[in-house]
What does this fold into?
Amino acid sequence: MSADPDEELVRRVGAGEPEAVRTLVARKLPRILALAARMLGDAAEAEDVAQETFVRIWRHASGWRRGNARFDSWIHRVTLNLCYDRLRRRREWVTDEVPDIVDPAPLPDAREEPHRVEQALQAIAPRQREAIILVYYQEMSNIEAAATLEISVDALESLLSRGRRALQMILAREGVHE
Amino acid sequence: MSDGSRNEPAMDAERFAALAAAYGGDLRRWPQADRAAGAMFAASETGAALLGHAGKLDALLDSYEVTAPGAALHGGILRIADRHLVQRRRRRVWWLSLGLAGIGLAGAVAGLAMVSIVTPEVPSDHYVLDANATAFGDAGPDGETIEEDL
It folds into this structure.
């Protein structure tokens, strides 16, 4: 396994160095916020999740040891778990049993292309959304994404394919994608 | 970016289509071990068509951007971190004080134990304090004096 680029920084955060804390926030906050925003489709909730994620980081940094996952994968897992807590509270389906197309009705408030994409992402199964966000937007390798989701690479590819196919169908229905 | 290895020497249309369907039209997102073979296949008409189709969805995904973290969120997270660091320092001082107090108490207990072990035990019949005892000894009539008197 290759070296973890965050390991030394996390050690310094664990030792209570204020400069390391600022560096970690500058490095990770944009990624965490983007992940939560795309998972939840709600900017305010995403900010709450980002704050909670950092509270977990401060709490665990001094004892954090690299196991099988990199620190970046670990914080992605923490963020995703916090997102799932909120999705459950919204009574959304959280399993992969959800059909590719959730709702045949037209997407609400679909006036602009980016907004339609956002709505389409929210309409697919959360596990498929998670896989697309990690690989496409967070630019994780397939191995890192599979480790973060605790699934095999083959299972990840299956989620990605089904997720992208579902997005194409939803967007085609909206006239955005042919 | 993807760096998974499947050790596939060549790529057929089926595998190429599966990868394009999963990772999109940009080969930089594909597993690293599949990129070279994928690039060769992409030069074919079928390959170009598959990448083009996947690339349309990529373009739509790219259009969905999220806002960068604001100063308020950034500052709030740093303030929480400061509070956490202060609390942790206090906890460390508290545990250090507790540890030192524990060491002091253990020393005191050990000292008492040593004193009780080292100090010889006084036999109960070595000295009997009775009504005739003084600082100079027993003031009562001893046996010899009694005999002389007799």
About this structure: Residues 64 and 126 of chain A are 28 Å apart (CA to CA). The helical segments of chain A are 7-14, 18-40, 43-60, 71-89, 113-123, 126-137, 142-149, 153-173. The domain at 95-178 of chain A is CATH 1.10.10.10 (Arc Repressor Mutant, subunit A). The radius of gyration of chain A is 17 Å.
